């Protein structure tokens, strides 16, 4: 596969993920938070398991253990985001959750005790300023939903770091599929404890669940794994940084969400912080040619 085709696939994945906030908000109109998570990841797991059934024939105890860990972290990610969407907009959620790409290098720096790079320092300053403009209003207060989405971004950063460690010990595709199943399982358990589990009872609910399950989870995950083999991590990060832009676009087109001028400025600063944190700054032309295919 040519890099341009792989990057177009990654762009499609980014569009799917950008739309997920809108569909989660739609699903919450008739489903409980845990119920929504259970259905989304349960159906996604079944689809992915059917497509990649051959890869799941040689599962051992270690893979199951690692998958359960990843599934639990993924469950925490979407619990915070899903509950957060009750009191924030899809636009805010998209930009705040995208802070994951800032949290990842920050956590790695703190854990590995390395000196913080200048670009990370700049990214953090821009991100904090952007969050303030995006979420703080007079009288000064941050909504619970905004705070939960930031926590969700932190959990997702932990998920990415753990995946990076476990990828050396087990097949990543198998881990990815099984984690969907465990995330769905945890959703069902909590739904039975704290909610009354139901199946969608309206067309809108079914549309939201099926889009989240098929496109945003199962297909999105599969396309990501396939496409990332044919392009660089730097370009992948830059493409994924467009997710909050699509989240805001879907919120504007279908939920009629509007941001204030300060909100747009804040969103732009968050996006800029993400681009800086995921970009590499080659020092010579040879490196540029290798990384970006320049001639």
TrEMBL record:
Its membrane topology: Multi-pass membrane protein
Occurrences of domain EamA (ranges): 6-135, 144-277
Sorted UniProt keywords: Cell membrane, Membrane, Transmembrane, Transmembrane helix
UniProt name for this protein: EamA family transporter
Parts of the chain that traverse the membrane: 7-24, 36-54, 66-87, 93-112, 124-142, 148-166, 173-194, 206-226, 238-255, 261-281
Protein location: Cell membrane
Major location (coarse): membrane
SUPFAM superfamilies: Multidrug resistance efflux transporter EmrE
ATP-binding found in the keyword field: no
Entry annotated with the keyword rRNA-binding: no
One GO location term (cellular component): plasma membrane
Matching Pfam families: EamA
Family named by the database record: Belongs to the EamA transporter family.
Family matches, as InterPro entries: Diverse_Substrate_Transporter (IPR051258), EamA_dom (IPR000620), EmrE-like (IPR037185)
Native source species: Peribacillus deserti
